[in-house]
Write a structure and sequence with these properties.
Chain lengths: ~475, ~290
């Protein structure tokens, strides 16, 4: 009897100690986007590595806390990956995500509002540096304003990256073809949209397909960029009337755009809309053959092998790649402004608009709340995004321009700083303008138009039907009202 | 006797696993097709709304049209060509050569499908692809083309992927059928003066009708379920010109989080496949009788 009691007591002691130990152990899973410390490969000989060091430092300072960096699989889209991990309740505690995606998904309660946390001091930011007293002060207001979700009144994203896009150009190839490579304006080779089309036309006459870009619905980024920025230019005289009251120039949220459609302030039957379609149709012959199904990588290879003189790409990661791979002289330019030479609707338009900007940031997911480790997760996020840490991450691998005060722009990305000073485009990519369904169907409609499967009349009718339907759906799903808009 | 009882009991395990992992998810699609479900918290009953939507869904109509053409082409090719390959191998006199030819025909089975698609993407690449370069090489440069980027050529280009259409499974099924025909039948036919074609149409095809039917049904099912080809090669573009229902199902679920609508598409595909299979079996049985 005594031996049995002894055995049971011993068992309980061991089990209790083990249970106590495991309860104190916390593992924080985090995605870190482009900074994931991958193994070197032939195509990526110098991958980022600093995140491992930062995770190890944090673990050393916080016994019992493990940091597990998670790589998002490259063979499925971010949307598919998120819907899988969230629905399986297996999402990492911290996810790098585009703030627009977070807006679209916030109805699922997938993300923790960070409003209170960003008001707190960040102990990992040195005294005297912005953000030490109040975490939010480490990042300029313009970043917070851009990523703030007006619909819910919540801030879900801490954005420490800024990126632009740009036209990479092969100087050797253009000069050999007799094409001017001097900038017409501060940020662009071309003074206006028409000049761009004319010069790319001259490139085509010299025997080249001018622009490597992708309009594949699987990787639609490149097309989306000029879709949104040129549409902004066409509606420059109207956009202010679409804003929610008291707003200043900003990227419209879904509610503002959906309500603009609902209230008849924008329609595919508008003259400005028709001019915009004309602008895109004039540009389309400059795109490489097969753009509709071309991937980003394929477009890049065409540029880097000297087949095509222009490439539209991400002005951060692509700059690193071009610097590494190009064996020719190259430069980077930005979109020209759309002016009245293109359309009377753009007569008051003075600028091109920034594509990108403060797009990707850190979010804390519902898993942190479910597991009761929200504060520990936010603490790690504070550590990671504090200037001493983030500065090392960006210096190690300059994949974006850091947004925090006190950090330098990496040398490789300095040519793109001028692009970041442009006003943000009011009308973003088709997906975040309204819905994913709209983005996908809109791109497919445009492809049908560009490949002569439908005529202009059908395109306008279909686009109008699509815009109306998706605006109705988005407004109904979110139970929004649209009485704030006045023409 | 006890061994037989144990066998029945032992069989319960795989049956239970099959029910949990195969039947349950499949039948849950029927249930989910009656709901709006975003894969998360939004989940409410809408009855047959998704099925009504399908009737007026332009994308679904185009997808079905594309699939029908694609299926017809691939079912014919993936039955006729494996049949002729198997027929030739069966008629080889040397057993050793017959063995090696079988190995050669079966070998593609071990090549990962995705690799195959990537190779074909490269073949069709408009700027540096093998097809266009080959055309230029033989002086047919004016016929170079963005094969996947043109709505007029994209479905043909996709149909030619994995040319010369000798799928291993179908080949082995038909080969197995041909090998079961007794030699005496062929010898009698030869004595009666039947040549190759007469033997083919009056002996080999009728006597392997079941295997041919099975090969056709399998091709139909595989091709209807296939969305990876379309996803990797074109993602259904340009426009909707290479959209198929399986890809639309995938996109509805994972791009737009419309799991209810995706389930409804799945149910319709299942019913269509079932109906086609039954018709095929009936026709085949009728012809055999």
């Amino acid at each position: 009897m005594f031996r049995r009691l002894l055995l049971v007591s011993l068992f309980l002691l061991i089990f209790g100690a083990f249970a106590g130990y495991t309860q104190d152990e916390i593992t924080i899973f985090a995605t870190v986007g482009a900074y994931y410390p991958d193994e070197p490969t032939e195509n990526n000989p110098d991958p980022p590595k600093m995140m491992n060091a930062i995770a190890a430092e944090y673990e050393a300072a916080n016994p019992g806390v493990n940091i597990e960096l998670v790589d998002v699989p490259s063979n499925i889209s971010g949307d598919q990956w998120r819907s899988t991990v969230f629905n399986g309740q297996n999402e990492p505690h911290i996810i790098v995500n585009n703030f627009i995606r977070v807006w679209q998904e916030q109805g699922n309660d997938w993300y923790v509002p960070l409003n209170d946390y960003i008001e707190m001091p960040n102990p990992y930011i040195p005294e005297g540096t912005p953000g030490h007293e109040r975490w939010a002060d480490s990042i300029p207001d313009v970043v917070w304003d851009s990523t703030y979700h007006t619909g819910s009144g919540n801030q879900y994203v801490v954005t420490v990256n800024a990126v632009a896009v740009g036209f990479y150009y092969n100087i050797d190839l253009l000069e050999a073809a007799g094409i001017d490579t001097e900038f017409d304006i501060d940020y662009s080779l071309w003074a206006d949209w028409e000049t761009m089309i004319a010069e790319m036309g001259a490139v085509a006459e010299a025997g080249y397909e001018p622009l490597a870009m992708s309009m594949s619905t699987a990787s639609p980024y490149t097309y989306n960029w000029f879709d949104g920025t040129s549409l902004t230019s066409m509606y420059i005289d109207h956009i202010e009337s679409w804003w929610e009251p008291g707003a200043s120039w900003h990227a419209l949220n879904q509610r503002e755009f959906a309500c603009a459609i609902h209230n008849g302030l924008i329609s595919a039957h508008d003259d400005a809309f028709a001019d915009w379609l004309g602008l895109l149709a004039d540009f389309e012959p400059m795109w490489v053959d097969g753009y509709a199904v071309m991937t980003w990588d394929e477009a890049y290879r065409l540029f880097i092998t000297g087949e095509v003189p222009f490439l539209l790409g991400n002005a951060a990661s692509q700059t690193l790649n071009v610097t590494r791979d190009a064996d020719f002289n190259w430069g980077i330019s930005y979109f020209p402004p759309v002016t009245e030479t293109t359309s009377p609707h753009a007569a008051n338009n003075e600028s091109a608009y920034l594509v990108g900007g403060f797009t990707a940031g850190f979010t804390v997911t519902d898993r942190a709340r479910r597991e009761g480790v929200e504060e520990q997760v936010v603490d790690f996020l504070m550590y990671l995004t504090a200037q001493p840490q983030w500065g090392r991450v960006v210096t190690d691998s300059p994949r974006s321009i850091p947004t925090q005060f006190g950090l330098d722009v990496p040398d490789a990305l300095k040519p793109t700083v001028a692009f970041l000073e442009l006003p943000i485009r009011a009308l973003k990519d088709p997906d975040p303008r309204l819905s994913r369904r709209y983005g996908e169907d809109h791109r497919r409609l445009m492809q049908e138009y560009f490949t002569d499967q439908i005529d202009l009349e059908t395109l306008i009718a279909e686009e109008d039907r699509l815009m109306s339907r998706e605006a109705r759906v988005v407004i109904a799903e979110n139970e929004w009202t649209c009485d704030f808009q006045m023409e | 006797m006890w061994r037989a009882k144990w066998l029945y009991l032992a069989l319960l395990i795989p049956v239970a696993l099959l029910l949990i992992f195969e039947w349950l998810p499949a039948f849950s699609a029927l249930y989910n097709s009656l709901y709006i479900w975003n894969g998360g918290k939004v989940h409410f009953y809408v009855g047959l709304e998704h099925y009504e939507r399908m009737l007026s869904d332009r994308t679904f109509r185009v997808a079905i049209t594309n699939l029908v053409g694609f299926l017809f082409f691939r079912v014919v090719m993936q039955t006729v060509l494996p049949f002729f390959a198997a027929e030739m191998i069966v008629n080889l006199r040397s057993q050793r050569w017959s063995y090696w030819w079988k190995i050669i025909f079966v070998f593609p089975m071990v090549v990962p499908t995705i690799l195959n698609y990537l190779i074909w993407r490269f073949i069709y690449n408009p700027q540096v692809g093998l097809l266009n370069e080959g055309l230029k090489l033989v002086g047919l440069g004016e016929y170079t083309h963005a094969w996947l980027g043109d709505p007029l050529t994209v479905m043909w280009a996709l149909a030619f992927v994995r040319f010369p259409w000798l799928p291993t499974l179908q080949f082995l099924i038909i080969l197995g059928g041909l090998q079961t025909i007794p030699k005496e039948v062929h010898e009698s036919a030869a004595i009666d003066g039947a040549g190759f074609w007469r033997r083919l149409f009056y002996i080999d095809i009728p006597m392997t009708r079941r295997q041919i039917t099975l090969a056709m049904i399998l091709t139909m099912i595989f091709m209807t379920q296939r969305f990876d080809l379309f996803l990797v090669m074109t993602d259904g573009g340009p426009g909707y010109s290479s959209m198929v229902p399986a890809l639309q199902l995938f996109q509805s679920a994972f791009n737009f989080l419309e799991f209810g609508y995706a389930s409804a598409i799945g149910v319709v595909l299942f019913v269509a496949m079932l109906a086609l299979t039954v018709i095929n079996l009936r026709v085949s049985a009728g012809a055999t009788n």
